Amino acid sequence: MTPVVVADPAALAEAAARWTAERVERAVAERGACYLALAGGETPRGCYRRLAQPPYDRKLPWSLAFVYWSDERRVPLDDPASNYAMARAALLDHVPVAADRVFPLTQENLPALNTVPKNGAGLPRFDIIHLGIGEDGHTASLFPGSEALNERHAIVRAVDDAPKPPPQRLTLTLPVLNAARAVLVMVSGASKREALARVVRRDPALPASHVQPVDGELEFIVDQAALPR
Ligand code: 6PG
């Protein structure tokens, strides 16, 4: 797996927005809708801010997008720590997404995951899933050593002891991440260098190493600072 390397966080935002826009357009052209799962954390924020600007804000078929999250912190949705709140402020408040097609990852909204088209195994098949990785190699809210990594059937797991605050989270599971048509992992900064190097060589101890769509694309877009020296 060879990451796409860009100069800095601004270039990462640009490249990630372009990658996403192409796949939103393709999903709508081919299937009439786009099922998109957004990520939390700082790195995706730049991509979301870029998608909220021209040409993407008006050019993309936002009204045909269904928006979900790859993970969520269990805090009120208006809490600044909420992944929904981040994506809303950075992107969703600025584009014509239909309010009734936005499904923050909460216990109450779990039935909404049944509206995502399914693959042959009965798993939701997202058109696009965004992910980040942590310094410990976590992705979504799948942390090293977590029992949730062994999940083979459930599409969402609750996590109560995440080492990155807040500890209580909900996360899509590996079978769902790996059922997607396209997964984008965004990685920025020197603090991610070691984790990225280990994930690129598929060190099984790191959760992000287990993201490998069975019938879909996997792209890593990373900045120079995150590359091993
Ligand atoms: C979260 C995440 C998490 C995140 C990584 C990277 O809710 O915390 O979705 O998986 O993407 O921790 O986060 P940063 O980009 O902030 O380092």
Beta-strand percent range: 15-25%
Oligomeric grouping of the chains? single chain
Strand order of the largest sheet: 1-9-8-5-2-3
Termini separation:
18 Å
Unreliable residue runs: none
Largest sheet: 6 strands, parallel
General shape: globular
Bound molecules: 6-phosphogluconic acid
CATH fold title: Rossmann fold
Topology as a string of helices (H) and strands (E): EHEHHEEHEEEHEHE
CATH architecture: 3-Layer(aba) Sandwich
Helix content: 10-25%
The radius of gyration is 16 Å
Q: Which labels suit this protein?
A:
229 residues, alpha/beta, Rossmann fold, three-stranded antiparallel β-sheet, 6 helices, 9 strands, 24% helix, globular, binds 6-phosphogluconic acid
Q: Overview of this structure, please?
A:
This protein has helices at 9-31, 43-51, 56-59, 83-90, 174-177, 193-200, and strands spanning 4-6, 34-38, 65-69, 71-73, 128-132, 156-159, 169-172, 182-187, 217-223. The strands form two sheets. A six-stranded parallel beta sheet has the order 1-9-8-5-2-3. The protein is of the alpha/beta class and 229 residues long. It has a single domain, classed as Rossmann fold. Helix 1 crosses helix 2. The structure holds 6-phosphogluconic acid.
Briefly, what is this?
The chain has 229 residues and is an alpha/beta fold.
